[in-house]
Amino acid sequence: MSIRLAACLVLALAVAGSALCAEKKQDEKIPLADVPAAVKDAAVKAVDGLTLTEAEKEVKNGAVVYELKGTASGKEYEVKVSADGKVLKTEEEKGEKEEKAGKKKEKDDDDGEDEKDDEKDEGKK
Known about the structure:
Layout: H1 2-24, E1 25-30, H2 37-46, E2 51-60, E3 63-72, E4 75-82, E5 87-92, H3 96-109, H4 114-124
């Protein structure tokens, strides 16, 4: 009987532990209309000319953070704002071309021929 009790206890702890992990971070895509006005205003003030396009509501350890995406001057931005309207992070999103260029550069840097690349660069100067 003690083996059954131990097995039940282990199972109960596993279920409780997974429930706690699920509460630590939850992301939910929401309509812009559901984002508080103070949050949207803070995001728009953080990036000049920002037009909001989408929103996510994140709950991390009980704290609500809004992740707002939008465009300004032909560039994409992501702004994280707390529920009380404090801007936590502003980031310019890389476009597809920039990401590919970054990957190509990383690939060139890891090709094992750094000395040859350096010599070519020095010869150009």
